[in-house]
Amino acid sequence: MNDEIFWAEQRAIDAASRGQQADPTACGTCQDNVKAGEQVEHEECAQRATLLQAPDHPSYELLAGVSMEENAKLPARFHIPVFDDCGKPNAWLCAVCQEEGAVSLWPCKTATEQGTKVFTPAHEAETALRRQAARIAELEKAARKAQEPMERLALAFENTGEPEIGRQIRSAIKAGAATQ
To answer: Which of 77, 78, 115, 157 could bond to 120 as cystine, CB 3.0-4.6 Å?
Structure first.
């Protein structure tokens, strides 16, 4: 089969499937058409795909200062396209494959290798977010437990005539708590 015929058929299939889903804000006529198995009547009533970041997507601040190689190792769901309308020429970039002075066009290597895993169903991303929150709570609990012996040590120094060492330990505990 000739390539031109193949692509013409693919465009026809795509055009025929467009408009089979109505946007939630579609007019009554288009919603009725879709319920009846027909296409929407108005182009603006057709539902379009919306690309959202995963709920646990790292913030720009977390990505800053991390190498492009490390960012490339992040889960595929973070390698989504973002449109850069500030650069010349405008371009689609990977949301995480970046470092100081360098960015990666989308699809980046990870997105190309992982394919559909880039577009994560919401329930999978929410599960990852819950796991992440549970791990953070576990680490915070461990940090509080680690502070208890330090506080006892500071008290012991204070009670044995070494109040300066006790104050230094308490100062270190406060400094550690301030960074958390």
So the answer is: 77
